Amino acid sequence: MKLHACSHQDSRNPTQAVVVVTTQRSVLRVTRALCLAIAVPSLTIACTRNMDAQSARGEFSSKQRSITNARGASSTGQAASGNATQFGSSLVTPQSGEVTLSTQEPVDLSQQQARAASELASQHEQSAQSLLRAASRSSWAALRAHAVEASASNAALLAELVPAALADSNRGVRFVACMAIAERPTPDLSIFIQPLLQDESASVRAAATLALARCGKKVDPSPIAAMVFANDPEVRANAYLVLGELGNPSAIPMIRDSLGKGLELINPLRVRLIDLAAAEALVKLGDQREVEPIRAALFAPPEQMELTVVACSAIGRLKDEPARPMLERLLSVDGQARRSPEIRLSAALALVELGGSTDAAFAVAREYMVNADGRVRALVASLLGRLRSPQAVEALAALVRDSDPTVQVAAAGGLDAAEFGEPNTP
Fold it and tell me: 177-219, pLDDT tens digit by residue?
């Protein structure tokens, strides 16, 4: 899952900014930065729409109750606040009885653990998928986007949810849908992606270009060239992202030429985040020297926590093995120098991507499962979803009952990943 930060406006209320922040499992989870207006890194997609968390829980809860009778509709009713807290527990009804293990012996312990996790996750599969379907129909754009992203590990569920997301009125949702298809190419969906090459949003056009290319379609990537010089942070960050994913080394000189140009009126921290996006793209395209500024960002000052979190995610995606001791240092330091929950969870996730101990990662996740900040708990769910262990699945099943709907969706995505995703291998 990477880190996406998406800043845009909700078309239903143009005065309200929408910020989308997510983490990624591989190409998607999806850490793409629809602008890198990052406030807090997490699997959470945060969306401001004059709706507080309690209202969101109530609105989503009413959708879940009505989904059986109105699967194709978009319910807009809101449940009373007293019912909102029952949302999670009403969804999760684990099957009783023992899990029947496969008689085929795995070749090693890690495979055995992953298989056990998959079998355990299958008990919760129906409830998790129902939750993701309900979220995809929410009137809260953030939940719609996050539901699509969280379904990327399940090809059938993604194919079910993504057509509506590609036609969504919110450009953040359209962007995430394109990136989800880029992670799990589905040529049959190309007919829905093609019109987005003319989308009003440059970020969506770039994402559609990548999705079509991954689906094996001929597409002209040249319009992205102008985007790397844009003064819009969203557009430039996503141009770097897509160019890195397209994998054409001929883009290296163009990316280098864009660095240090424009963005004069943009917050310096955001500019540094965008520069990290450029550095990651350059490494993916073959310029290994650019991994150095990413490693350096691991030790940004505490007030620039966002840089460290983004750097951790990039290190994991790039499989930068020499950075392993640096990540371990972020986890081991204690006392007044102890890093924030966001940094520690991000470092743990990066170590898992490098083939690190899942037991150690679970220990970190367990520290923050009841953290007061829902964004932190959502990041916990993102980490747990990568572990593929029975204990992680049990923890995700508990988080599906969380009082925050974004945490519930993150946990549902983790359960789906445990059932359908690829096992972690060192």
Answer: 999 999 999 999 999 999 999 999 999 999 999 999 999 999 9
β-pair partners for 8: 18
Residue pair 134/60 in contact (Cβ under 8 Å)? The answer is yes
Structure tokens at 234: 């969203």
Segments making up each domain of the chain, as ranges = 1-49+145-286
Decide if 68 contacts 49 (C-beta within 8 A): no
CATH code 1.20.1510 for 1-49+145-286: no
Q: Following CA atoms 333, 334, 335, 340 in sequence, which dihedral angle do they give, to the nearest 10 degrees?
A: 90
Say which amino acid occupies 268.
P
* All residues at 6 or more sequence positions from 44 whose CB lies less than 8 Å from its CB, including other chains: 21, 22, 146, 374, 375, 378, 379, 406, 407, 410
Q: Given CA atoms 309, 313, 318, 322 in this order, what sign does their dihedral have? A: positive
Tell me: pLDDT of 34 over 70: no
What is the length of the chain? 426
Give residue 127's pLDDT: 81
Q: Is 156 exposed, middle or buried (0-12, 13-18, 19+ CB in 10 A)?
A: exposed
Contact 278, 227 (CB under 8 A): no
Q: Tell me, what amino acid is at 25?
A: R
